[in-house]
Design brief:
eight-stranded mixed sheet; 712 residues; EC 4.2.1.17; lipid degradation; Rossmann fold; alpha/beta; NAD+ binding; long-chain (3S)-3-hydroxyacyl-CoA dehydrogenase (NAD+) activity; 2-enoyl-CoA Hydratase, Chain A, domain 1; N-(1-d-carboxylethyl)-l-norvaline Dehydrogenase, domain 2; single chain; six-stranded mixed sheet
Length: 712
C-alpha cells in the first residue's frame, strides 16, 4: 500500500498529457510522431524521431507532420500541444546530412518550399497551438516552435538559431517570425551570433510565454486552453520603427560593422545575406519568406557553407572517438578524478571536470595555487549561468587536497605538472604505489613522448596521455596519446572520459609534439623568423587574419607562452630529423627575463587588460608571408599522416580546427591542401626552400598520389 502511495505521489519525469509515459517507437505507418487526445479534446503530439535519441527535422519527419496536421484540420481539437518524447531536448534542428544530398540550388529551393508549406500549415491551424519545450530548441526546432501560438518552456531550456555557424541563416521562417515576436534587433542578434539564449532571458525577450517547472506543465497547458495566459508582446516602441526603411538601414549599417569584425564577409557571406534580407524585405513578410528560401539555397552552394557543414561532421567524427570500442570489455565507471598540479592547466582541468559532474580532488604543494583555482571555477560557473545552488554543488565537488590523499581513491589520476621529465618521474614514483587497482595514470604532457615517461613505471599499461589545450575550459579538443604498452582498456577509458567532460577526443600516437604541437610549432617558428627579419608583428598577424585564422601567430605565441613555444621548438629540433632554424638570442633573452607573453603582461606584444597593444600603422608583410606561415604547418600535417601519428586526414583536419582554430571555412589544413593540389604545395615549398632554407623541404608524402576524398 505504501509503495502505491509513493508511486502515485511520484513526479513523472515529463508531462505527456493522455500518454502515461513516453511512448515506445513503433514501426507502424507513423514512425516519428505520436498523437493522442485527452478528455478535454486537447491533442498531444509527441515528436519522436525514429532510430535516434535526438530529434532532428528530416524530410520524413516533416512529411509525417503534414499528414498529422491534415488529420487535425478535418477534426479540429480544442488545442494542440507539441512536445518532444526524447529525454535530451525538444529538437536540435534540421538533419544536416540531408544538405549534402542536394545537387543544386533549384533542388534546394524545391525542398525548402515543401518544408515551408508544412510549418505554415501548423501556423495556420484554427485552434490554439502550444509548444512545450524542455532542453534545447535549436535551429529548425526553434522555427517549428515559432509557428505555434504559445511557447511554454521548462526551466533549463535553451534556444538558438545556430545556422550562421554552418555558413547559413535560418531557412524555415525564423527570419520573419523571430523579429515579429521579439524586438527585431534582439532577433537579428540571435540569428547573427548563433548564441544560446537561456530560459530566463528567453522569457524577458518574449520568446517564450511562460517558464515553468516540469510538474506545472499540465496546469500551464490548461491555463492556455482556458484563455488565462496573456501573450508575451514586444513593445511597439521596439518594433514599430523598423517597419520603415530608414531605421532598418541605420540598424543594418551597425550590424554590418559588428558582423564584419567577427566574420569578414569575403570569408563568411551569411551574415551579410541575412542583414540584406531583413533590411530590404522586412516590411513585406510574405516576400521575405520567399527571399529567405532563395538566399538560404544560394548560401548552401557556397564553399564556405559546404566546408562549415564538413566541419560539423568532423566534430561528430571526433565525438565518436569517445565511444567505447566494441572489442573492449565493460569498463569500470569513472567517478573520482585526482589532479596533481594546480597551475593554470591543472586548476582549469580540475574545475572543468567538477563542472561536468565528477568528484575532483586537486593537489598542489602551494595552498594559494589551489585557492586561485577554486576562485577561477566560481567565475566559470557564473559565465555558464549556473544558479547559486548549482555553483555550490560544483564547488562542493572540487576538493582541495593538500595531503595528496586523492591518489589512493581516484579512478583516474591526471598529472599536470611542468614539462620536466625528471619532475614527472618523481611524481609517478610517489603516485604509482598508491593507485588503487584499475586506476588510470594520465599525463597532460604537451610534448614529452610517453616512452620516456613510462620508463620507471611498474605498470606502464595504465599510462595514457590526456593532453588539454590552454585554456582548458574553452578549448574543445583533447589529444588522447597512445603508446605501444598502453592497454586497450586504458585507451578506451581515456577516450570515454574525454567525451564525458564534453570534449572532443583526438587519438594520436606518442611522437614528438604529438599532432597539434608538431604542426603548430613550424607556424610559430616561422613567425619568429619573420620577426627576426624585421617584419612588424602586426603585419604578420594581419596576413594570418586575412587568411581566416582566429588570431595572428604573434598574438597566439604570446597566448601559448613564449616559454612553452621555446621548449617545444627545442624538443622538436632535438628529436626530429627535419631542418629547424635556430632560436634567436633575443627570444631566449625574453624568456630568461620573464617576458613570457600574456601571462606575464609582456612578450612579443605588451599586454593590457588581457589584450595585446598593437600599432595601427605598420609596413605590410612581404608577399610570400602567407605561404611561409601556412605551408610549414601543412608540411608537418603531411608528415604526421605519413608517420601515422593520427589515423586519417579527416581526424587531423578536425583536430587542427578545434585545437588551433585553423580557418574553419577552409575545411581543415589537409582539405585546403587538396584544394590547392599536392603538386602545387610541393612546388611552392621547393621555391621557399631555394629562397629561405632547408626548413621548407617538402615532406615525401606530397609525392604520393592524391586519392579521391570521402566526406566524413
Amino acid at each position: 500500500m505504501t509503495g502505491n502511495v509513493y508511486s502515485a505521489l511520484a513526479q513523472r519525469d515529463r508531462e505527456f498529457g493522455p500518454f502515461e509515459r513516453a511512448p515506445q517507437q513503433t514501426d507502424g505507418e507513423r514512425r516519428n510522431w505520436h498523437l493522442k487526445r485527452d478528455e478535454q479534446n486537447v491533442a498531444w503530439l509527441l515528436m519522436d524521431k525514429a532510430d535516434t535519441s535526438t530529434n532532428v527535422l528530416s524530410e520524413d519527419l516533416l512529411r509525417e507532420l503534414d499528414g498529422v496536421l491534415a488529420q487535425l484540420e478535418s477534426d479540429l481539437p480544442t488545442a494542440l500541444v507539441i512536445r518532444s518524447a526524447k529525454e535530451n531536448g525538444f529538437c536540435m534542428g534540421a538533419d544536416i546530412s540531408q544538405f549534402r544530398d542536394l545537387d543544386n540550388q533549384a533542388q534546394a529551393i524545391e525542398k525548402l518550399n515543401e518544408a515551408h508549406k508544412v510549418v505554415q500549415r501548423l501556423a495556420d491551424l484554427k485552434c490554439p497551438t502550444i509548444a512545450v519545450i524542455h532542453g534545447a530548441a535549436l535551429g529548425g526546432g526553434l522555427e517549428l516552435a515559432l509557428c505555434c501560438d504559445y511557447r511554454l518552456a521548462v526551466h533549463g531550456a535553451t534556444f538558438a538559431t545556430p545556422e550562421i555557424q554552418l555558413g547559413l541563416h535560418p531557412g524555415l521562417g525564423a527570419t520573419v517570425r523571430l523579429p515579429a515576436l521579439i524586438a527585431p534587433v534582439e532577433a537579428m542578434t540571435m540569428m547573427l551570433t548563433g548564441k544560446n539564449v537561456h530560459d530566463g532571458k528567453a522569457k524577458s525577450l518574449g520568446l517564450i510565454d511562460q517558464l515553468v517547472e516540469e510538474r506545472h506543465v499540465a496546469a500551464a497547458v490548461a491555463a492556455v486552453v482556458n484563455g488565462d495566459v496573456d501573450k508575451s508582446a514586444q513593445s511597439i516602441w521596439t518594433s514599430k520603427p523598423f517597419e520603415h526603411s530608414l531605421p532598418r538601414q541605420m540598424a543594418a549599417r551597425k550590424m554590418r560593422a559588428q558582423a564584419a569584425s567577427k566574420a569578414p564577409p569575403e570569408h563568411y557571406p551569411a551574415p551579410e545575406a541575412l542583414i540584406a534580407l531583413w533590411e530590404e524585405h522586412a516590411d513585406d513578410p510574405q516576400k521575405m519568406l520567399r527571399k529567405e528560401v532563395e538566399s538560404f539555397a544560394t548560401l548552401l552552394q557556397t564553399s564556405t557553407s559546404q566546408n562549415l557543414v564538413r566541419v560539423f561532421f568532423l566534430r561528430e567524427q571526433l565525438k565518436a572517438q569517445s565511444k567505447v570500442a566494441e572489442d573492449v570489455d565493460d569498463l569500470p565507471e569513472l567517478r573520482h578524478i585526482h589532479v596533481i598540479g594546480a597551475g593554470a592547466m591543472g586548476g582549469d582541468i580540475a574545475g572543468w571536470c567538477a563542472l561536468q559532474g565528477f568528484r575532483v580532488s586537486l593537489f598542489d604543494m602551494k595552498p594559494e595555487m589551489i585557492a586561485k583555482a577554486v576562485g577561477k571555477v566560481a567565475g566559470l560557473c557564473n559565465s555558464k549561468h549556473l544558479s547559486p545552488a548549482e555553483t555550490r554543488d560544483v564547488l562542493d565537488r572540487l576538493i582541495p587536497d593538500l595531503a595528496n590523499d586523492g591518489l589512493s581513491r581516484a579512478d583516474l589520476v591526471l598529472e599536470a605538472v611542468p614539462e620536466d621529465l625528471e619532475l614527472k618521474h618523481t611524481v609517478y614514483a610517489e603516485a604509482e604505489p598508491r593507485l588503487k587497482p584499475g586506476a588510470i595514470l594520465a599525463t597532460n604532457t604537451s610534448s614529452i613522448p610517453l616512452e620516456k615517461l613510462r620508463e620507471k613505471l611498474q605498470s606502464p599499461e595504465r599510462l595514457v596521455g590526456i593532453h588539454f589545450f590552454n585554456p582548458a575550459a574553452q578549448m574543445q579538443l583533447v589529444e588522447v596519446v597512445a603508446h605501444d604498452q598502453a592497454s586497450a582498456s586504458t585507451l578506451a577509458q581515456a577516450r570515454r572520459f574525454v567525451g564525458q567532460i564534453e570534449r572532443l577526443a583526438a587519438p594520436v600516437a606518442s611522437a614528438p609534439g604529438f599532432l597539434v604541437n608538431r604542426a603548430l610549432t613550424p607556424y610559430l617558428v616561422e613567425t619568429i623568423c619573420l620577426l627576426d627579419e624585421g617584419v612588424a608583428a602586426e603585419a604578420i598577424d594581419k596576413v594570418a587574419l586575412d587568411f581566416g585564422m582566429p588570431m595572428g601567430p604573434v598574438e597566439l605565441a604570446d597566448q601559448v607562452g613564449l616559454d612553452i613555444c621555446l621548449s617545444v621548438a627545442d624538443m622538436l629540433r632535438e628529436r626530429l630529423d627535419t631542418e629547424q632554424p635556430a632560436t634567436p638570442d633575443w627570444l631566449r633573452n625574453k624568456v630568461d627575463d620573464g617576458e613570457l607573453g600574456s601571462k606575464s603582461g609582456k612578450g612579443l606584444y605588451t599586454w593590457k587588460d588581457g589584450k595585446p597593444q598593437k600599432r595601427d600603422k605598420v609596413e605590410p608583410a612581404p608577399e610570400d608571408t602567407l605561404d611561409r606561415l601556412i605551408l610549414p604547418m601543412l608540411n608537418a600535417c603531411q608528415a604526421c599522416l605519413r608517420e601515422q601519428v593520427i589515423e586519417d586526414s579527416d581526424l587531423l583536419d578536425g583536430a587542427m580546427i578545434f585545437a588551433t582554430g585553423f580557418a574553419p571555412f577552409r575545411g581543415g589544413p589537409m582539405h585546403y591542401a587538396r584544394e590547392r593540389g599536392y603538386e602545387e604545395i610541393a612546388t611552392r615549398l621547393n621555391g621557399l626552400k631555394d629562397r629561405h632554407g632547408d626548413r621548407f623541404t617538402p615532406d615525401s608524402g606530397w609525392n604520393a598520389e592524391e586519392k579521391p576524398h570521402q566526406q566524413p
